[in-house]
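input
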Amino acid sequence: MALKKLCASGKILHIAEAARELGTSEITIRRDLGNGENGLLCLGGYIMSANENGERYSLSHAQGTNTQAKTQVARRAAALVEPEDTIFVDCGSTLQYLAASLPHNANVTVVTQAMNIAEMVSRLDGVTLILLAGIYHPESGSFSSDTALGMLQEINITKGFFSAAGIHESEGVTCFHFHEVAVKRAAMARSQRRFLVSDASKWGKLRPATFAQLDEFETWIGKPETE
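output
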């Protein structure tokens, strides 16, 4: 199947681009996609492997994958933290390495909705922890609630460090879970400086929920040289 060949090796194409490549109409492409039985699915106008779309995020699994790259980008992010900073540390497996890189007596305040981050930070002397609690989501190891959003409105964050499950050229910075979006957006709005912390493997990946565009961040720590 020609359409399947276009999407080989995890490539993601917009329906319009696929139609141009194959010299056919978008209606024909949508019809050929069907219900995913051919191994392809359409998500937000983009065609991708049904296996990739069916991937489910598990924090416990993610904590054991790509650890060297995650550690490197997280340490670069941690080097930006200064005494008296109030930092937001997002959920996920990458930023737990930022938390682990904070020194004792760092004299910083850490704001997070993530259980794994909170557990690490709570053991450090000289670090004030603000946990944005609420309903716990075990798949992401994070909390969400209206109370958390209200708390964020009262916190002045000097630096925000944000994670991503996918970074797409046109659809922006994405995550697996819609419950993460509101907290991420609220924390971004309260952050004087915003940093995306993600290794290069996330480039080109499109996940269900978009929470930001790349130009909303001061820099992407871990950006691939070819991007």
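quick obs: The chain has a mean pLDDT of 84.
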